[in-house]
Amino acid sequence: MSAPLWPGALAAGLVTALAIAFMWAENEWEVMAILVTAAVGTVLARRTGWLAPATRAFTERESAMNRLAILGLVVFVAFFHDDHFPLLMVGTVLVYFLVCLGLTIQFGYAGMVNFAAAAFLGVGCYTAAVLTAHTAIPHLVVLAIGGAVAALIGSILILPVLRTRGHYSAVVTIAFVLLFKTFLEVNDTLGGPQGLKLPSMQVLGWKFNQNFSVAGIEFSFYVSYVLVALALVVVAFALTRRLERSWIGLSLDAVRLDDTAAACFGVHIARWKIVAFTLGNFMAGVAGALYALMLGFIAPTNFTFGDSLIMVSIILLGGIGNPWGAALAAAIVVVLPEKLQLIQEYRFLLYAALVILVLLYRPEGLLPRRLRVYLPGWKPR
Amino acid sequence: MSAPVLALEGFTRRFGGLVALDQLDMTVGEGEIVGLIGPNGSGKTTCFNVLTGIYEASAGRARFLGRDITNLPAQAVYEAGIARTFQRSRLCLPLSIVDNIMLGNHKRLAHGLWFNLFRRAAFARQYEQAFGEARELVRVFDAPLAERMFEAVGTLPMIDRRRIEICRALVSRPRLLLLDEPSAGMTEEETRELMDDILEVRGRIAGLTIVIIEHEMGVIERVTERCVVLNFGKKISEGSYREVAADRQVQEAYLGVE
Which residues of chain B make contact with A151, given a CB cutoff of 8 A? Predict the structure, then answer.
């Protein structure tokens, strides 16, 4: 058949081991050492050509590798099963990843730069906060409503976004994210600057906010959230992939690359921009609803322009239009400052420097997007 | 000559005070290859752009197969059966050859969200069929190129890009093909090859009508049956290549002789 699976499996195993070691490391020197090992190891593997078989496994044995990636995450969670902090980190990375899958559709495919991702995440958060406090709607449904409300509020923005061309639509979204935070701060019903508290998430009577034990092993309550986040990410990832590998993905690319030529071949520019924008905001909203329930407390300071910038920088860093790139970059951007307290203060400075370096030396991101493969594994006769 | 495929009446486009296209009357019959020529800035490309809905016409009408298509949006013009290429190649360079050709196949592919996301088996069948057709078409132009369908267009030389652009325009089986300076940026040899291919494809697609903008007079002489000559947006001559080439007004327009 096609490429052997084991180099990919080995790579996935190493990444998982590295991630566990990274989380396990106590002092900053250990963290640094692991980071340097990972970076040097990757570069060396590339130079010696050892990376190539692994890359081939990722492209040619894709569905197997997707399962291995999930397995890697499950192993990670199992390893830290009673440790709150690493699990909270994983949950946060998954939430950011979900938002960035939405951004991948908007920015990576349709070319609409959305600097309001944090605002749409916030819409999802506040929707969840209000609904769980005042209604008895089941929490899984609340997640969907969070997405729907974000998509709906996005549709207010769509008119000015469609009327502007190119990067001017980015300015519209910047205005929105600034407006959104101010609105939250002055709005007393939504808790003003103090924010809102949320109850524990509950699914079919299962309360998320308490530790639980299975077969005598104690699990952190975050495990439940991580599993829900993982399920959402898997679904969103599959949808994003299918979208890319379809005529719609092609139309979105055409809208981004040359809208005049696209229009001359029947592509309805506005329609696909609306689809991409709405779908992306829906994902951000769902992510927000889960994020709010997981944190149990939200405040306007979580949804600033700066947070939106971080999300866009995740896309730039990972590789525009490549969902795996977004996953890697989300992990780096979310976890790194938490483990390296010394850079916490200079977080934004470092991101800025990192993004500039990437744009200069690897403009396509850490994991550049590949050419479209409509049907994986299919070969013309 | 049979009933016209395309009929322009008083076709006009103004940009502020400049009349880029001035009262153009022109008909193109089924299966004809008509050359649209004239010096730089004489309104040839403007004519294509107004016709395909990129600009609005300031006055006049365009009829295509008996139907009024004046000022229809670009998408509707394409749906009606008019496809074009661009003067400066407008392919999506980061995308593959298949992608670029499929883009031209838009009206024959299903674009429903449900179909594309959840009916993957049906999608796969549609893809296989469309891919086969696209590869057949590329093969007419260049057989080796048909084996490189999954390569990015940005890595190809100019002649291959032109081929792909013409395939993109032809894949939806349009009734009218508008070629905007297909020889631009190519050697004489390459141009000759490309023209041979275009003529061959025309033989295969029944009733394909072509309007071609070209500066290379050798091309015009060889492929067109009739020419329309523009100068400052106005039609100054019409007829076979020999006739227009002998026309004093045309010579003045090109050479500027008194």
Answer: none
